[in-house]
Amino acid sequence: MPLIDQSVIEEIKLRANIEDVISSYVQLKRAGSNYQGLCPFHSEKSPSFTVFPGTSSFYCFGCGAGGDVIHFIRRAENMDYPSAVEFLAKRYGIPITLDKKEQAETARRERVLAMNKEAARFFHQKLFEPEGAEGLRYLTEVRRLPLPLIRHFGLGFAPNGFGSLTDHLRKKGYTDSEMASAFLCGISQKTGKPYDYFRNRVIFPIIDVRGDVVAFGGRVMDDSKPKYLNSSDTPAFKKSRNLFALNFARKSETDTMILCEGYMDVIALHGAGFSNAVATLGTAITPEQARIFARYVKKVIICYDADEAGQRAAAKAFALLGEVGVECRILKVENAKDPDEYIRKFGAGAFKNLMERSRSEFDFKLEKILAEHPIEDPDHKIKALEESVRLIASFPSPSVREIHLHRIAELLGVPPDSIRRDVEKIIRGRIRKDRREETRQFIRQTEGYGDRINPDFVKNPGAASAEEAILGILLLHPELYGQLQKSDKPLQADDFFTAFGKKVFTAFAERIDDPTFESGMLGEVLSVEEMDRVAELKQNRSRLQNTLTVLRDSVARLRETSGRREQSLEDILNQKRRKKDN
User: Hey, what's the torsion of the CAs at 361, 254, 304, 218, to 10 degrees?
Assistant: First the structure.
């Protein structure tokens, strides 16, 4: 089977919902934001097999099998990587062989992208011509955007005529049907002639992470409806799978993104220094967009309007982002209708302070609990207490739990000690389970003997342990790779002691430049067993500190220990336990 285009693999992973695929083989039950079941790859009586919707991955704490949805099919159906891709593609109706029809679809998409790029140039140029004077005045005077910010986002203007863009694109060789398919023109039912879809509007190009202009949004200059007009789905664009300004926000050096309602809010925030702001595209957040957030950040601050529609959208965002393991807070804009107006009135510093006062997920969920269970009724009060206890126990910090505990005690009129005992009972059960899992992980990771995947581990446990830390951090946080390689002595494959470490790092380094990189891509060159180990490396690092400093320290430790063998397996085990305790 020929090399599969990465965009096809990405499409498969988006459409092949991992919970749905695995539930065809395993009976899954929800466990918090994840799912658990009996592992299909080894015999067990208690479930140690976990599906993580947030990362679209699975991992078995019993046998160490893990990876993405393609890797699951490789194991479950005993297939190689291309065959597993083909299996899922057929299941979800996604073409992967380039027959004449599919070649035409690919060419059609490329044609739309080229046409969008030309349209974006046209709109941007018109903004600075007499026809665009109203749009430029709106952006610079009403919205107070500086010219560099306008150019940074490639903003433009669609003239108030029915054929300005269509005439221009015809001269460039594009047909009416092509323009209609790209949502750049409509076709009159009366005359059959095309007309510009965007007219008398400030234009916001929507650019994907590859840098392609995939769609447009437009804000009208008069009282026409709708106020904002957005491209519908096209051969090059799926509204539910894109975020405005993600091409910039994904490069911001933070683990947080700000989710806004509109384009202008995002642009204003970027102009004020908050380059991690994004917006959905005229719709409430979708599950696909939630998974996009989970790919890039650990935390999202929801910055929606305070009206009823905004609060409904915020509730949906909390739910979807929570399902994929992303921490959420909600920001309440005070004395302004939106973030754009707030920044213009009070400045970036005041907005930063506002962000620091954002409401927690606990506050949001507590309000929901109390709304569903009015505490004036004794039965509802009991249910509110039970749900509140489970909510408190979900927080890892004892001090945070204590604060929430006293709030609940005061609200419900229950002694704090009673609530504390219930919370501690839940936590003790969780700790017992975690310790059993951690012990199994330590044994598997440190014993090294008889390791078919990494037989070199036992030859130098110190170097091999450092390698596993490096690879685990890079696979969890690939954005750190670029910063690591800025040093005088960049990390090379030859720095690795084990053949397995060299192989994984080489595969990683060859693919990291792809803006859609994820560890599942390594399955193209790694075996099923090697991909299981990749999943294990990620899982073992997921509860530890994974900063650039830790990464650099691990590289230094690898180089220092790669020629020595004095560390015993017991030393490595104790070292890992100390790190976890810290």
Answer: -150
